[in-house]
Amino acid sequence: MTANLGTITRIFLATLTLALLAPPASAQDDSHMQWWRDARYGMFIHWGLYSIAGGEWKGKDYGKEQGGASAEWLMNSAKISGKEYRGTLARQFNPTEFDAKEWVAIAKDAGMKYIVITSKHHDGFCLFETNATDYNVMQATPFKRDIIRELSEECVNQGLKFGVYYSQFKDWYHRSRGRNAPGTMSNEEYLAMVEKNLDELLSNYGEMSVLWFDTGGNDVIEADRQGARVRELQPNAVICSRLYSRRVPADKRKYADFESLPDRMLPTERMTKDTETCMTMRHNWGYDRNDNHWKSEKDIIEFLALCGARGVNLLLNVGPTPEGRLLPEETERLKAVGQWMKVNGESIYGATYSPVDFDFWWGAMTQKNKTVYLHVLEWKPEGIEFNGIVGNPRKAHFLNDPQRKSLAVTYDAGRHITKIDVPEKAPDFRNTVIAVEYDSPVTADPDAKGKYHWYTTRSRRHTEIRENRHAGNTDLLDAVKEAK
Ligand code: FHN
User: Fold this and answer.
1) Are 66 and 113 in contact (CB under 8 A)?
2) Which residue has the higher pLDDT, 430 or 21?
3) From edge to edge, which strands make up the β-sheet containing 395-398?
4) 285 CA distance to ligand 1 centroid (A)?
5) Relative to the CA of 44, which ligand 1 atom is closest?
6) Element (H, E) at 75
7) This prediction's pTM
8) How many angstroms is it from 214 CA to the middle of ligand 1?
9) Residue 315's domain is classified under what CATH number?
10) Based on the structure, what is the number of domains in the chain?
């Protein structure tokens, strides 16, 4: 009876606290979101004890079976007890080559504006100093350095926003996974640990700009309590919708600042609310020694542009090695994307989704102020044409042309079809951006029709182009020919 009374009291007090803390909807301003909307592009880091195992356990490779979650899911996939997992890996965790300055410089050079690192993933291991559990980098490993502190301080030094991923619901070490896999804590003790962890992360590391909760449970009261605590201690932190289970309706996710799409997802429609997608450069999030499914730099630049065309932030992942280094395949890709961003970043940073709710067989659009940016992913030497925007452009030029020489433009006022003459070869085969400037704010043709949506899976994209050549977009070419 006492226990029940205790629980009822806890729920009552929690609810009362929430009611007092949560500002009325009308009073909620979203000014803390502006930097995030402008940023558009950040680094995701999956790092922890699992990096030592690299997707293998006792000689078995758990990589491909997990479809991209072998590394950080190894404890679950290989059914490893918390005792054995910690006993085997924690004493080996000594990434002496870890250099926060280097990691942050790589992210900055890549054009990324924020970093989100796993502070505690589902394996329960904490990459920060905590009094709530001794299963942390300071007490359980020979490394004894607070990774969250070193990275958060370096982000301040180099002008990037810093945030943490935190697995608040899944914890295969502290929570029981069933009769044969007892956790170290009861449910009540675990929830108390989470609250303590959050207080430590929200109080001991300066400005915490992102709280990237991952895979919420169904208990909205629990989630709201955690969200309210973030608001209270870090009012400017941007909170991920994964604080809540996907089964919780969007309008009940009181503390979610942005919708985190399912992993690696590119939506076909434009997202008019704050939305982010996260993407791996290969199959896995964490380090996996056998995963060679690398996306090319073109794939990544294309995906970044398509996210922009949907109004979606991109959180691009790296999975550092047990020694504390990013892989050369990661740094090469990040550097290439960074060079592309140095020239074309104005078409991504602070830009919003395409003025039209369809793409084109050459690519997709982003917009900012009075400019539409054409991300030409598939070159068309016969010319780049588009429908859907009203008005004769004042000027069109390649973003990667330092002189910004004007390109020849024709505009069919009757059909609102614009065509831009271009050279035989693409200036940048990965994504050539054409800035199309207007004298007034960009106006979409409400009657514009289009049915092409880009996908990043190469086979699907080519299928789409082939299908559209027969069914859809070629008539755009004919229309322009007729208009001449
Ligand atoms: O289970 C995790 C997974 O390991 C990884 O952290 C991804 C990243 O978005 N989140 C969960 C699966 O969606």
Assistant:
1) no
2) 430
3) 363-368, 371-376, 432-437, 395-398
4) 8
5) 8
6) helix 74-77
7) 0.89
8) 7
9) 3.20.20.80
10) 2
